[in-house]
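In this section we walk through a basic example: taking a raw amino acid sequence and producing a predicted 3D structure, encoded as discrete structure tokens. The instruction is simple. Fold the sequence below.
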Amino acid sequence: MPPLPRLHIRTYTTPRRPTRILPPSTPLTLTHFLQRQRVLSLWRRILRSTNRISSLSTRKEMRDFARREFERNRGVSDLGHVRYLVSTGKAELERVERAVGVR
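The resulting token sequence is shown next.
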């Protein structure tokens, strides 16, 4: 008996990865949720602001600096310290916007 022909099945989508690798953590409190939203809002504001910088090298430098700062403070969970970081980040962004001439 001759061997059966091999079937090749095409896949048109990427394989589905699990959505959560880690077990679900405890739910956020309302205060933590609001602070998280403020942090994300600051991040989006930084990205929008850097988009208006005409020099590509300056734009990249500013984004890299912001990313490093966010990554460096990623593990901060104390709400008082997070508030401090957000307010300092906003003040720093406004100072840089004035210096670079973005607005």
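Looking at the output, two observations stand out. The chain is about 60% helix and 0% strand. The two ends are 78 Å apart (CA to CA). In the next section we compare this with other chains.
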